[in-house]
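Re-run with default settings, no changes from the original entry. Doing this only to confirm the output is reproducible before filing.
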Amino acid sequence: MKVIAFTVVLGASANVRGRSEVWTAEQEIAGGWVPHGNLTTSHDDLDVFEGSLPTEFTWCNKNGENFCTMSRNQHIPQYCGSCWAHGAVSALADRLKIARGSNTVDINPSVQHVLNCGNAGSCYGGSAGSTYQWIYKNGGISIETSQPYLACSSDSSEGFCSHVDLTCSALNTARTCGSFSAEAGACTGLNHYPNISLADYGSISGSSAMQKEIFKRGPIACGVAADPLLNYEGGIVVNSDTGVDHVVSVVGWGDDSEVGKYWIVRNSWGEFWGEFGYFRLAFGSLGMTHCNWATIADYSAPEKNNQFPCHEGGENCAASSSII
């Protein structure tokens, strides 16, 4: 078993992150959110007896079924420090897959909708907990196919971001573009679009709470120290760095004869990185102890027959630009 136990040594060619992508409690409060907020006590009420959890468990292979949705890359088409939204949205997508069944087509919530409208962060950092609080307060989040990821926020000047209108509007919630602009095919903001709403959200801390929440309800979004992961190529990471500056989604755990228990973690740096976008992390390493979760209230899906069918150009679903 490959075990990665190391100290980062900075050199001229080292890959080094320059800023934290995780908001402080003060930033969350300034944004109107509650740090470590819990809507209810539902996590505490979960019925899991001590010693009853399996030694190994992952939603990517639960009794031969896969409930893990796609791996994302927050850094294309240009760099954007939106890990906080990616971690939260990926865990939510998995929970939707769990609710619908492993044989269903993935429905992926839109990270860009959060960046455009959520006030939970930007390309310069944010909060997974605030993301869930916003989705709950907003009444839902649109999906990737009606608001694809641009890796832009209104305060970013990276790449083409300064040339894009990112104000929160119907167009930047869910949209379609009917034709080329030369053919008078304007893009249309939609007033009907598939979405996902939340029933509950909360914050947990510690490996026991993390295992209980994952096992009973699905993957969670957790903070982690990212610097030791930048050049990760595989194996189980054992590292005492506690400088949490990044958010990931945790889908399960395993047990190694040398290292002991480790987390199975999906990152948002693309599938070219790590173990096809994932990494394994020893319990207690890289400061990964504080996490957020959310449960689903309702969602649009083919099997629910609750989609309003918009036309290809969106003209029968055209929304006022003031509607958000």
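The chain is about 15% helix and 20% strand. Helices lie at 25-30, 83-100, 111-117, 128-138, 207-217.
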